[in-house]
Design a protein that fits this description.
- There is one protein chain.
- The protein is of the alpha+beta class.
- The chain has 2 domains: 16-98, Arc Repressor Mutant, subunit A; 106-202, Dna Ligase, domain 1 (2-Layer Sandwich).
- The chain is built from 6 helices and 9 strands; from the N terminus they run ααααββββαβββββα.
- It has helices at residues 16-26, 33-42, 51-57, 69-81, 122-134, 193-202; strands at residues 85-90, 93-98, 106-110, 116-119, 145-148, 161-162, 170-174, 177-182, 189-190.
- The chain has a 4-stranded antiparallel β-sheet, covered by helices on one side. It has a 3-stranded mixed β-sheet with strand order 4-3-5, with no helix packed on it.
- A hairpin with a 2-residue loop joins β1 (85-90) and β2 (93-98).
- α2 crosses α4.
- The longest helix is centred in the middle third of the chain and has 13 residues, at 69-81.
- The radius of gyration is 19 Å and the shape is globular.
Length: 203
């Protein structure tokens, strides 16, 4: 459920670690090495993850730097409360992503392979704001997850993704290379070599 593609950063006044330390101190909570190790690890990469996936990435029990499972679960809740992470539920599992210093965005979710695909779309935001004005609401934020069954085709090449969708954004991405970029949509479906080449030609 990870994503190795980032939409970029939003300028912030302090690092995630400093923000978390301020949060802990403001509530009279201890600033422990385990908490600091977790915030450093989580913000060392950009990906969507659940608690079990995070635990698998950390040092094993008995190793230096090990963090217990209860501490991981508790600290993830603190990250959400501190505004560092955003939490949402997919298929009954809590999934986390960066919130602090990361732009507002939406997701496609492949119900077959469970991939989450981030995108930004100004027209979508404009429509949201227009509807809010019509009903005299002020928008504080939103979360949109579009479910796409069979996003990953059978027999496709793992990790090779191509975008060609009816949105005002088009990107073709192969790991390490970008074949065209006009917008912020990052991924769409996994396909065969022929499908990939056809998509590149269409772009």
């Amino acid at each position: 459920m990870s994503s190795d593609v980032s939409l970029g950063r939003v300028a912030v006044s302090s690092t995630p670690r400093d923000r978390f330390v301020e949060y802990l101190q403001s509530r009279g909570m201890r600033v422990t090495q385990q908490r600091l190790a977790l915030v450093d690890h989580v913000f060392s990469r950009h990906e969507h993850f659940d608690a079990d996936q995070l635990i698998e990435q950390l040092p094993a029990s008995g190793s230096e730097g090990h963090v217990s499972r209860p501490t991981v679960y508790r600290t993830l809740g603190e990250f959400v409360d501190a505004g560092l992470l955003r939490k949402f539920v997919l298929n009954g599992r809590a999934v986390y992503e960066h919130d602090y210093g990361y732009p507002q965005h939406d997701h496609f979710h492949c119900t077959q392979c469970n991939r989450l695909l981030e995108f930004e779309n100004e027209k979508l935001v404009e429509l949201r704001d227009e509807v809010a004005r019509e009903h005299r609401f002020r928008v504080a934020g939103h979360r949109l997850i579009i479910l796409l069954p069979h996003l990953a085709s059978q027999g496709g090449l793992p990790g090779v993704w191509i975008v060609s969708v009816a949105l005002p954004v088009r990107v073709v991405t192969v790991p390490g290379k970008e074949f065209g970029m006009d917008g912020h949509l990052r991924l769409s479906y996994c396909g065969t070599i022929k499908e990939i080449m056809d998509g590149i030609e269409r772009i």
